[in-house]
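Components:
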Amino acid sequence: MRKAIAAVVLIGTTLLMYQTVFAGAEEDRLAFVKYYKTRFPDIPFAEYANGIYAIDSDARGQWLEIEEFPPYEFAVEQGQEWWEAVFENGKTLADCFPQQLDEIRVSYPRLDERLGEVVTLEMAINQCRTANDQPQLTYGGDEIIDITAFLAYQGRGKELEVRVPENDSRALAAYESGKRFYYSKRGQLNLACADCHVTSVGQLVRADRLSASLGHTTHFPVYRSKLGGMISLHKRFAGCVRDVRAKPFALQSTEFRNLEYFLSYMGNGLKVNGPGARK
Amino acid sequence: MASKSQYPILLVLLFFCGYAGSANSDDQVAQGKALATDRSKGNCLACHMIEDGVQPGNIGPPLLAMKLRFPERDMLKIQVCDATLRNPNSRMPPFCRHRILSEEEVELIVDYLYTL
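Structure:
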């Protein structure tokens, strides 16, 4: 009897815990949005999809000029070719995705129920290749970046709607791990993502003005003029981790996928506008 | 506030370093300036405006009138050596603890800062 009561109490408190924590993800998001709103009262919510150009009016003009002849156009075209390429078994990537073409981008990242892990768009593409007896594409390589560029382009205008399902503790754990990553100080410079992109947002590190993390995931992959090529979101994560002199995690590592999950959830309600163009 | 309790220890350490009273020659000031500017060392300009330094950041306050703001040399040394002792959440890297700068190098930077 005592055991039974204990069990009920245990289940009860666990449920209670979940409820408060799940309320937490949405509470986190609202607080995140409110922070930037307080910091920049004149910037409309939708603008945060434009990264630093939401804040930096000086750089904005130059960026709009670049957008007139988008440097990522070639990647989008290549991506379409890869997307339509027929595997030996007669199938294509499209056969793995039940969604409409313009819904695929916003369907990720998501918690895969079978795997119990966060699956990103890149990972889903490789899962599809494996299912069709094709070798995996190298993350960070042209082919997979071009495919995501094409899918982002097709998905433009759709709102991010990342879910942390209330009945799945693995989703919660992944969300929490991404959140912890974001707020943890790391590296020789002892800086958290939030130190730069929340606390110091709009301020300068040398000549670079710091963007808000709200909307950080809407516009990837991104063409970087500095590098003369396209980079994935995880490549950007790795760059910032290296900048604080910490060892970066691998592209599509659990750490970076969970971070993407957290940051994408923070951006819910913003519209996808990838691929983007950045300095 | 565990960090507060480390305060006196650090003060004592700094005191016994024996640099506190050393005369700062032009050479030391020049070395300090070089260390403060070097991107792999202090890289202070990443976050602070410092006199004529090019492309300064503004994450931290401009570094000027240091004698006015830090009349006690030890306080300035602590700020540069490990800012997290004063503010555990500081965005300023703990230069000594994370071995970016040695205490000797911090002394030289402090010599330089007092010329600002």
